[in-house]
TrEMBL record:
This is DNA ligase. SMART domains: BRCT, LIGANc. Zn(2+) binds at residues 406, 409, 424, 430. The gene is ligA. It is an enzyme of class 6 (ligase). It catalyses: NAD(+) + (deoxyribonucleotide)n-3'-hydroxyl + 5'-phospho-(deoxyribonucleotide)m = (deoxyribonucleotide)n+m + AMP + beta-nicotinamide D-nucleotide. InterPro entries: BRCT_dom, BRCT_dom_sf, DisA/LigA_HHH, DNA_ligase, DNA_ligase_AS, DNA_ligase_CS, DNAligase_adenylation, DNAligase_N. NAD(+) binds at residues 34-38, 83-84, 114, 137, 173, 288, 312. It holds the Pfam family DNA_ligase_aden. Residues 605-684 form the BRCT domain. Belongs to the NAD-dependent DNA ligase family. LigA subfamily.
Length: 684
């Protein structure tokens, strides 16, 4: 390579790396895999060492990847938050070990192994046992102050108990637990929102949100893995971790001390498969020299410590041929393209299908039918197509033309500004949408007619007994008893006959009857108004009190409701402008389904004097019934719980209270108040 070529290539690589870094750290998105990204960096570093004259001072090989944003205050880190050297090869680890041995000049040493959690690094500062600040890594020198958002993470203690140093910093990884990630995505899919791409990017995007109530709903978690401070008195990293754990922080129990690099390799092999059973996505392991003095001796490079390194597991991938693409239509009409592949073995299972997300993704990959493609299985259950092997592309292949009509009903598809997915707008007659909406209506969180399985619903649709969820309320026992229908078995690839027995028919009729008592907010959620999830339905029901007021609400009055934005408001208005929807609601009304809030259930807020306070009520009272007392507490912002623990704030004690409760509360030092004292508190 001539110096000119090298200079040009260094420039190109730098631009490419900066582009992907910006996407990843600023916009919480990735267009290439971590492995491909890391390869770009390796290539750049190699060129820079061969042609040091072209190495820029601010080269991505020399600095930590992120930056700060304008939306938050920036905070300068007391101790810089660096990156970690990383490798995908065991030989590199052995080389790392040789460097450590050399640096420590014959001393013995041991390693502390941890998993590398795939989330966002956080630095937490505590003063006198109280959380003062939570800051992101940013550019390593300064980060974003996201304290308010971090406080919504339940496993980050706001106040520590017992003896802790007057001031210290603890670092860890905030992450989206896989289960929570799946829950949030299922909810998003259910109400027609685009899906979050992966837990790491979603965690990063979430922590940078301006509205911490949304952050709170996402239920992020955090594992701590680093303690810093002046004169803390610990000799090793493992002592630090034991201390951090004893102060009530969440430390993953997966760590292990190893006395040699062979032991480290064994740890790596041990976790290669097992890590998929953890509640969090991991992309490798981190090894740290355990002794803190030795860490000091080894020191840092510009970008990372010399006493630690991460080993990253390579996502398992395979190559196969893209045979065709099918388009699936969901409940809200959103269309998802799925790749049908020649069967290939990947991470122990045969893969035939892979997700393609949307039209942009197909375009980005420049996919063509007949292409040889790479498929990868990360932490996700559904594998994805990551790239095309262009060397094997057939000369006569043509770019894929995305469908313009619904594969299920032929209606022209639409795609709204700013949305990733195409939609079929034929909501009332497109079969998967009709079926999906009924399933949505009967789910447990909505009206809860759980004896009706998806197969039976298909049977009812096949027999033209229903065409939407309101029709369920006209079904009779005689119609259901002995009902015959066919279901398609994926396994056998053919239809089989089914029929309903009298017992199931009776159960279904009973469940439908019971569902008439379900409160309005759950019915409202069940209606399946796009973007109206469970929480939004609760807000709307509490505010408008009945379906008629909601149906008449103007755009202005909708957005005046807490947490209701433009998009939801437009969607609600559009829903009630549809004649068919009005007819459906009338049928529900005729059937006796709850379309207004139950007035006796409404608690009128009086004050917030009991905010964050918990109460246990015990015994008999003279001025209030127990229910009234409970309502009073709630109306003043408090919470009633059932059992006495250290965390309890007040025990409201009436007559004839059990002696054991009283004793427990006394020993735990809980405030015990009488009915009179309670009345005084709320009257003050
Ligand atoms: N796909 C893309 O487009 C793209 C773009 C930029 C960066 N990336 C990826 O992001 C990473 C960037 O590297 P980086 O500088 O952020 O460093 P890094 O993520 O490789 O390593 C440092 C980070 O590891 C995390 N970590 C997790 N568990 C830890 C533990 N037990 N102990 C210590 N740290 C732990 C911390 O957040 C720390 O900041 C690389 O993995 C890279 O592949 C991907
Ligand atoms: Zn359709």
């Amino acid at each position: 390579m001539t110096p000119d070529q090298a200079q040009e290539q260094i420039k190109q690589l730098t631009d490419q790396i900066n582009y992907h870094s910006d996407l990843y750290y600023q916009k919480s998105k990735s267009e290439i895999s971590d492995f491909d990204f890391d390869q770009l960096l390796v290539k750049l570093a190699a060129l820079e060492s061969e042609f040091p004259q072209f190495k820029a001072e601010d080269s991505p090989t020399q600095r930590v990847g992120g930056t700060i944003t304008k939306e938050f205050d920036s905070v300068i880190h007391k101790y810089p938050m660096l990156s970690l050297g990383n490798t995908y090869s065991e030989e590199d680890l052995i080389e790392f070990d040789n460097r450590v041995a050399k640096g420590l000049e014959g001393q013995t040493y041991e390693y502390f192994c941890e998993l590398k959690f795939d989330g966002v690094a956080l630095s937490l500062t505590y003063e006198d046992g109280v959380l003062k600040r939570a800051v992101t890594r940013g550019d390593g020198t300064q980060g974003d102050d996201i304290t308010t958002n971090a406080k919504t993470i339940r496993s980050i203690p706001l106040k520590l108990k017992g003896e802790v140093p007057a001031e210290f910093e603890v670092r860890g990884e905030a992450f989206f637990p896989i289960k929570e990630f799946q829950r949030v995505n299922a909810e998003r899919e259910d109400i027609g929102l685009d899906l979050l791409a992966n837990p790491r990017n979603a965690a990063s995007g979430t922590l940078k949100m301006q509205d911490s109530s949304v952050v709170s709903q996402r239920r992020l978690d955090c594992f701590l893995y680093y303690l810093l401070g002046e004169n803390l008195g610990y000799q090793t990293h493992s002592e630090c971790m034991a201390a951090v754990e004893s102060w009530g922080f969440n430390v993953s129990p997966t760590y292990s001390k190893r006395s040699s690099i062979q032991g480290v390799l064994a740890y790596i092999h041990e976790w290669e498969e097992k890590r998929h059973t953890l509640p969090v996505e991991t992309d490798g392991i981190v090894i740290k020299v355990n002794d803190l003095n030795q860490q000091d001796q080894l020191g840092f490079t510009a970008k990372s410590p010399r006493w630690a390194i991460s080993y990253k597991y390579k996502a398992e991938s395979a190559t196969t041929v893209l045979e065709s693409i099918t388009y699936q239509v969901g409940r809200t009409g959103s269309v998802t393209p799925v790749a049908n592949l020649s069967p290939v073995l990947l991470a122990g299972t045969t893969v035939k299908r892979a997700s393609l997300h949307n039209a942009d993704q197909i375009e980005r990959l420049d996919l063509r039918i007949g292409d040889t493609v790479f498929v990868e299985k990360g932490g996700e259950i559904i594998p994805k197509v990551t790239a095309v092997n262009l060397d094997l592309r057939k000369t006569d292949s043509e770019p894929i033309v995305y469908i313009t009509e619904c594969p299920e009903c032929g209606t022209p598809l639409v795609r709204q500004e700013g949305e990733a997915n195409h939609y079929c707008p034929n909501a009332d007659a497109c079969p998967p949408q009709v079926l999906g909406r009924i399933e949505h209506f009967i789910q447990r969180k909505a009206v809860d007619i759980d004896s009706l399985g998806p197969e039976t619903i298909r049977g009812l649709l096949q027999n033209n007994l229903i065409s939407n969820y309101a029709d369920l309320y006209s079904l009779t026992f005689d119609q259901l008893n002995g009902l015959e229908f066919r279901i398609f078995s994926d396994k056998k690839g053919e239809y089989t006959a089914r029929s309903l027995r009298d017992k199931s028919a009776g159960n279904i009729i009973k469940a439908i009857e019971v569902s008439k008592k379900v409160p309005f907010e759950r019915v409202l959620f069940g209606l399946g108004i796009r973007f109206v999830g469970k929480t939004v339905a609760e807000k709307l029901a509490a505010h408008f009190q009945n379906i008629d007021a909601l149906g008449l609400a103007s755009f202005e009055s909708l957005i005046a409701v807490d947490e209701i934005g433009d998009r939801i408001a437009h969607s609600v208005i559009a829903f009630f402008q549809n004649e068919e929807h009005i007819k459906t609601i009338e049928k529900l009304r005729q059937a006796g389904v709850q379309l207004k809030t139950d007035q006796s259930q409404i608690i009128v807020p009086e004050s917030n004097i009991f905010a964050d306070k918990t109460f246990v009520i015990s015994g008999v009272f003279t001025q209030f019934s127990r229910d009234e007392l409970q309502e009073k507490i709630k109306a003043n912002g408090g919470k009633v719980i059932s059992s006495i623990s250290k965390k309890l704030d007040y025990l409201v004690a009436g007559d004839k209270m059990g002696p054991s409760k009283l004793e427990k509360a006394t020993t735990l030092g809980i405030k015990i108040i009488s009915e009179e004292e309670f009345i005084q508190m709320i009257n003050n």
